[in-house]
Amino acid sequence: MSKIIITAAITGAVHIPTMSPYLPITPDQIVEDAVKAHEAGAAIAHIHVRVPENGMPTADPELFYEVHSKIKRRCNMILLPTTGGGANQTIEEKLKPISRLKPEMCSFDPAPFNLGLFQLVQRFDNFKYEWEKLYLEMVKMGTFAPSFNDDLEYARTMLDCETKPEFEMYELGHIGYVAWLIGEGLVKLPPHLQFVFGPIVGWMTPSVKHLVMMHDEAVDRLGAGKFTWSVAGAGKHQIPLAATAMAMGAQNVRVGLEDSLFAGKGKPATCSADQVKMVVNIAKEMSLEPATPDEARQMLGLKGTDKVGY
Fold this sequence. Notes:
The chain is of the alpha/beta class. It is built from ten helices and eleven strands. The strands form two sheets. Strands 1, 2, 5, 6, 7, 8, 9, 10 and 11 form a nine-stranded parallel sheet that branches. It has a two-stranded antiparallel ribbon with strand order 3-4. α1 (27-40) runs parallel beside α9 (272-285) and α3 runs parallel beside α5.
C-alpha cells in the first residue's frame, strides 16, 4: 500500500482552555496526547507549549525541552516544534527552542498574515482565565508580519541546526517566499509545504477549489515533483480537506486539537488521537497506509533522532 504521513498538532496557540476541557496544557498532558496520537497512527507531532498554571501559549525553551525529551523516551515520533508560537511572542523568543532542541523539523511562517481570533470572543460570556479574552482581542492591533530579514534569520537557524522547515502557506503569494529562500541557497531541497486553511478573517477560504489552486501554484513556482506537501484544515474543514489532499496525492495531512476540537459533528474530541483514527480509516479506504515515523523520515529526508538536542 502507498503511505500517508499523519501529523497530530497537539495543542497549538489558537484555542483557549475555555473552549475545551480536553485541550492539553501541562507538559505531561501534551506528552500523553502525542503518545496516544502515535499509537493511533500519527508519525509526526506538532508541538506548542503552554504555561502549566493557566494554559497561556509560551515559547519557554525549558517547557519545549521537557515535552520533547519525555515524548522521545516513550516513542520515536518525529517532533516538529513551532516557530509560529503565539501572538504575544517575539521572533527571538520563537527561535530559542529551535537552537536548543535542533529538531528534525519545525514550522516556518515566512509571510505576513492576519489571525482574526477576535471574532471568537463573542462566543463566551465567561472565561476560565483572565488572559484569554485579551489574548483573543489583541490580534486586532497587529499582524503576524515577519520581515524578509526575519525570514533569513529563521532559514539560517534551521539550516545550521539541520532542521527541515515545514513552510506554512496561507495564501498563493506565500509560495513565492519559499522560492526566494531557495534562490538564496537557504533551503535544503525538496522543500516541504503545508497549505493552511481556516474560517478565520485574513485566511484563504477553505475549499477544494482553493486547495487545488495552492497546489498548482506550488507546481508553477517550484516545479512538479520538486516539493512535498501537506494540508491543515481548521474546524469542520479538517477532515474533508485531509481526505481531498489524500485523493490528490499529498504526502502528509494534519489533524489534532490545535486545528479542531471536534471528532465529528457536535462530538467533542477527547484527544488528538480521535481525529487521527478518523483519518486512518479514510486513508485505508483509499488504499493508503499510515507511514511509520521511520518511513516518514525517509519520505521527508530527515536527519534522525540521533542528531537532535533533546
